[in-house]
Structures are given as C-alpha cells and as structure tokens.
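Lab notebook page, bench 4
Experiment: in silico fold of construct C2
Operator: M.H.
Input chain length: 180 residues
Purpose: comparison with the prior construct
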Amino acid sequence: MNHLSLRYAIIETAQKMSALGLNQGTAGNVSVRADDTLLLTPSGVPYEDLTPGDIISMTFDHRWSVDIPGRYPTSEWRIHRDILAALNEFGAVLHAHSPFCTTLACLQRDIPAFHYMVAVAGGDSIRCAPYATFGTEELSIAALAALEDRKACLLAHHGLIACGTDLKAFRQGHPVLLGD
C-alpha cells in the first residue's frame, strides 16, 4: 500500500473533524498530494470506520484505485484534484460543513477581517464562492477563484474549503478548524 503514513494522517484528520463537530456522518472530505497522485477520502464511509485501504488514490487525470472493492472517491473529488493541480503551494485540502461556516455560506457572505485568524487564511477576508452544484466543474472553478491569494474559502449554500502545505499545517495554522 503506497503512502501508508499519509493514509493514516487522512483518517486521523477526518476523525478529528467529526469529533469537533465540523462534519456529521459521511459529510466533508480530506485530500493530500502524494507525489504525482492525490489521496482522498472515499464516498459514503463513516470516518470512524475508515482503514488505510479505504483511502482512494487518484491521478490528476482522474484515474483512481482503491484497495477495497466497492469504494469510490468522494463526490467532491474534482474540487480536491483541481486545487492540488492548480495551486502547487498546497499539499492538503479539507472540505467541511461546520455549522457556523455553512450558516455564513448559506447567506453567501464573505467573512470580514474581524479576527486575526482571518489573516491566517491569506487576506483581509475569507471569500464566499458563488453557488454551484456539488461535485461539478462549476463549483471547482468558483472555489479556485475564491481561493486566489487565500488558503480558505466558503462555498455558497455548502460549506468551506481550507488548504495547507500538508495536514500538519492545519494544526499549526488553522487552529480554528481543528481545535488545537
């Protein structure tokens, strides 16, 4: 199994997101760059049940494989792939449906610079990407635009995206997201 330590890190991160209430059930997803591929959470598998064999390995041209038959990439694979393909400074992407971010996203509002943690996301606001149907190329394009010169964005009527150099960056630079 390739990149075993990254697979475990994805599982640990996904489980922590659930434990903190950032996601419920099988909502949200996590990905990391792994050489010339990306590793990402599967669709429809509760985080507490994940094993390293559940983690999807995907090429940047959308060919994917998994060690356990019947597992499929998250429905948001495109947004993860497109961010990691277009923005080389990032090696990890989190997508969550945290209640407060989702509330703001439903209002289609940017998060203004009211707290220093907004600056950690790379600018004077955390932008809200316009609405597009989940899993679509349109959503991916909108997210990429909202991420210009940023590390995080909201997705209208959906949730949030946060990006980092690796999964450790979320604990160091995004304590609001992972509670450290």
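Observations: Residues 127 and 153 are 5 Å apart (CA to CA). The chain has a mean pLDDT of 90.
Next step: discuss at group meeting.
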